[in-house]
Amino acid sequence: MNTHCDNIRSHYSGKWANIPVVKTWDKGPTTDLPFGFSVLEFAPTQARDMWTYATCCMSQPSDSELLELHLFSPVQCESLVELLTVVAHYHRTGQPLALGHTVNFGRPWINGSICDYGLISLPYLDGPLIEEFRLPESEKIVRCLWLVPITRAERDYKKAHGLAALEHKLEQSNFNYLDPFRPSVVSSV
What we know:
The protein is 29% helix and 24% strand. By secondary structure, the protein is α+β, with helices and mostly antiparallel strands. It has one domain (3-150). Helix 4 packs across helix 5 (163-173).
């Protein structure tokens, strides 16, 4: 039993009004991840017509900054469990991630997509109710942020012009965050 993981799972379930399937990826150095780490798979509902995948226990109560990530998909996709596990591994053993960071997926988000990077963004679809979760009996806040699949050109644009400029471009273009085959909202930088 891992109370921290249970609290995170309850937070997501309560806010998204859905019970997840708990998934794990057992290939690679997953023993480097915290005890109880998993990826939660939320099936579509009437209110949320998409698959949602969320890390659970990527953060630990002893961390100075507690971070969990989620991403959306138009289809059920086991490879997203692997993707979030790899991102969590990088966060825990490589470079700590935070709002505004980008990560190189090393492959397309979904097969055939040109989105092979992820942008750690505010959870604009769900707002602050999903973003901030205070641990029971603690002053610590877990930040649940959105991992938005982006293209290399969009990542380069963010590096050159900043997070706000890229988010403005994404918003202006009314980009479809569920379309793995969407074009880049910027041309090469």
